[in-house]
Amino acid sequence: MSPLAPQPLSPLDGRYQAAVTGLGEHLSEAGLNRARIHVEVEWLIALTDRGFAGSSALSDADKAGLRAIVTDFDEQSIAELGELEAVTRHDVKAVEYFVRARLSELGLDRVAELTHFACTSEDINNLSYALTVRDAVRGVWRPKFDEVIDRLTRLAREYRAVPMLSRTHGQPATPTTMGKELAVFAYRLTRIAKQIDANDYLGKFSGATGTFASHVVADPDASWTTISQEFVESLGLTWNPLTTQIESHDWQAELYGKVSHANRVLHNLATDIWTYISLGYFRQIPQAGATGSSTMPHKINPIRFENAEANLELSSAVLDSLAATLVTSRLQRDLTDSSAQRNIGVGFGHSLLALDNILRGLGEIDLAPEVLAADLDGNWEVLGEAIQTVIRAEVVAGRSTISDPYALLKELTRGKRVNGEGLAAFVETLEIGDEAKARLLALTPGSYIGLADELLDRL
């Protein structure tokens, strides 16, 4: 058997690449290197703007030329960096040499020694990761997350008044509406979205052990903490003043924990929709050319939601591992975070793929209200809760002397089927006020939904 040509090892880079390609713009090795170049270039510009070490501010044309190194970053740039790293065996050093080469091409050799000045690799890396993760979350993951919330919200409003039998513990229970149940998920996800949006993206820029030691030796009179803060904030990040060699990664642990939480709520949504499909509450809309089963031609399998479940589990496994790993670094620095952070894109990739499947799945189902209605009509015993509650209120009001209303209804309904006529006959015998009796006689499983419709206004 001939060996295969090199193939993608991860399905995110193979079978599912189209669904997650936007993340590669930021969370790939190339995206990280572009961000590193961006940080190196902006640091050099910041130093020359301050006239550090006798330098003078670069012209607007020179600054534009430097920034074009970032905006024009392409396949050729990626290949050149790869060649440099093969020699340096150090990714950030390769970036430094890459920038120096561009400076020479721009005729800016006079400021070449300000490239990577007073920086440890982690000064560049932590800012680059913060930038790439922030842009991936805000520009790729969150918009897809919002699409799912919006689709859920629209469906919730569409089905807000469609009554549905609840199933607490999997058993027939007090009815609700399909809209209210979908609104629960939309509300939960909206809360988490706000928490994710509020997450800080921290950055440090303080040298080999976070003390600005080499900075102070190079220029004792400069206000290095101010310079560092202004530089980090100029990149749109939050400055962290107290670190070791690395930024402590707490913001990453916080963010990944929130995204993992979102994954688990989405997993709950996927399993519930799958169950509603199995109950016949949702019909699946056939997709042209699609095959549900290789042997049973009638089948339309809920694969979108099953695929989402698997990918949400994988995403949370990766993100939970990152959150646990990244907050620990031995003494002033160890290298465990270097390998771990290269999997950030994997964690977000599986989550994004799940979001895509859920969004598509929600667009391929249609409510079957007649199935919901038949289910309700077959479970009149769920009104036992309503009847015993009304009796208790009547007892307190002095209009009934019935003792232990709960036990009375338990005897009538527990583990038994009761139809509408039988329940009405039972209500007629009750010692309660006429108005209360009329209310109970008018009640059906389909109308016993409380404020479910009104609650949609809270969404």
TrEMBL record:
<dbReference type="InterPro" id="IPR022761">
    <property type="entry name" value="Fumarate_lyase_N"/>
</dbReference>
<dbReference type="InterPro" id="IPR000362">
    <property type="entry name" value="Fumarate_lyase_fam"/>
</dbReference>
<comment type="similarity">
    <text>Belongs to the lyase 1 family. Adenylosuccinate lyase subfamily.</text>
</comment>
<dbReference type="InterPro" id="IPR008948">
    <property type="entry name" value="L-Aspartase-like"/>
</dbReference>
<dbReference type="InterPro" id="IPR024083">
    <property type="entry name" value="Fumarase/histidase_N"/>
</dbReference>
<keyword id="KW-0456">Lyase</keyword>
<dbReference type="InterPro" id="IPR004769">
    <property type="entry name" value="Pur_lyase"/>
</dbReference>
<dbReference type="InterPro" id="IPR013539">
    <property type="entry name" value="PurB_C"/>
</dbReference>
<dbReference type="InterPro" id="IPR047136">
    <property type="entry name" value="PurB_bact"/>
</dbReference>
<keyword id="KW-0658">Purine biosynthesis</keyword>
<dbReference type="GO" id="GO:0004018">
    <property type="term" value="F:N6-(1,2-dicarboxyethyl)AMP AMP-lyase (fumarate-forming) activity"/>
</dbReference>
<comment type="pathway">
    <text>Purine metabolism; IMP biosynthesis via de novo pathway; 5-amino-1-(5-phospho-D-ribosyl)imidazole-4-carboxamide from 5-amino-1-(5-phospho-D-ribosyl)imidazole-4-carboxylate: step 2/2.</text>
</comment>
<dbReference type="InterPro" id="IPR020557">
    <property type="entry name" value="Fumarate_lyase_CS"/>
</dbReference>
<dbReference type="GO" id="GO:0044208">
    <property type="term" value="P:'de novo' AMP biosynthetic process"/>
</dbReference>
<feature type="domain" description="Adenylosuccinate lyase PurB C-terminal">
    <location>
        <begin position="329"/>
        <end position="449"/>
    </location>
</feature>
<comment type="function">
    <text>Catalyzes two reactions in de novo purine nucleotide biosynthesis. Catalyzes the breakdown of 5-aminoimidazole- (N-succinylocarboxamide) ribotide (SAICAR or 2-[5-amino-1-(5-phospho-beta-D-ribosyl)imidazole-4-carboxamido]succinate) to 5-aminoimidazole-4-carboxamide ribotide (AICAR or 5-amino-1-(5-phospho-beta-D-ribosyl)imidazole-4-carboxamide) and fumarate, and of adenylosuccinate (ADS or N(6)-(1,2-dicarboxyethyl)-AMP) to adenosine monophosphate (AMP) and fumarate.</text>
</comment>
<protein>
    <recommendedName>
        <fullName>Adenylosuccinate lyase</fullName>
        <ecNumber>4.3.2.2</ecNumber>
    </recommendedName>
</protein>
<dbReference type="Pfam" id="PF08328">
    <property type="entry name" value="ASL_C"/>
</dbReference>
<dbReference type="Pfam" id="PF00206">
    <property type="entry name" value="Lyase_1"/>
</dbReference>
<comment type="pathway">
    <text>Purine metabolism; AMP biosynthesis via de novo pathway; AMP from IMP: step 2/2.</text>
</comment>
<feature type="domain" description="Fumarate lyase N-terminal">
    <location>
        <begin position="14"/>
        <end position="308"/>
    </location>
</feature>
<dbReference type="GO" id="GO:0006189">
    <property type="term" value="P:'de novo' IMP biosynthetic process"/>
</dbReference>
